[in-house]
Amino acid sequence: QQGTSAIQLALFELIKAYILNNPDIDFDSSTLTSEALIGAFAGGTGALLTNPFDIITTRIITQSTSSGDGDGDDDSEGDYTEPLGVIGMGKRVYEEGGPAAFMVGWQARVFYWAPAISIFLSCYCSVRQAGVENGWFS
């Protein structure tokens, strides 16, 4: 989650700075609507870029460490397998589904994070602006 948030916030600030510093762009990036749109774009992009890492993390957390012979007797030798780490799980995901396997579920992540980050950053920027105007941070 932290990587996703870092990408989303960095992208949001980079887009706003680009708009502010480019005289050819006639767009007020400090309105609530524009911050919501930029936030949605940053949120969706961050979610899309980090989807492969989420796939690997989810697979690591949910992996089975038993051989799964189904007899219910898990105390005999050989029933335990060493859990895979990040590299090993990445290789397994690739072997099972190729490059496309790393993007499974991207639509759900993008359509969850885009509006969530849009709302969060719009609220954050509104509170920050109100704080600056009212001297809350001095």
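(ticket continues) Second input and output from the same batch:
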Amino acid sequence: MADHEEALVGDGPQVPEKSGILSAMFTSCAPDPRGSVHRAWGISLLFVVLYFVLSIFEMVSVQQSDDGSIALIIASIWTGFIHLALGVLGTFVLKRFPTSFSVGFFLGVLVVLANQNIILYASFHKYKQGSARSNQVFASLGFVLFVVLTFMSLL
């Protein structure tokens, strides 16, 4: 009977060792996960506030051009306000009400805004009206925010 038990122990399902890229990236978060999330959110807030300020400059730049699109003016200022609201919402959720529901809601908002940023990158990247430099900076920061918010939602 002992031989039979040994055969069963060795034939069990093999659990793969966690050696993926995400586990390698987040090993430094293991000792203090809450502090890691707060530090990552602080860095994300810097980008969010910078994007808000830049959206105002982009709105003015497109508005001053004679052939600027009203839709892209609205898109730039709307995005700025949404990101400002994201900063307030994220800080409120992470500091005051870190329940599983509110954090899940916040992560859902992060994913939606990350996708919005990649769409705005595609919209403003080759846009010719207004200042080409301002459009390119706005688009590039939108792509950087896509990466930052995606990383934050994975954290």
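Agent notes: The CA atoms of residues 63 and 85 lie 23 Å apart. The radius of gyration is 22 Å. Closing as not reproducible unless the customer responds.
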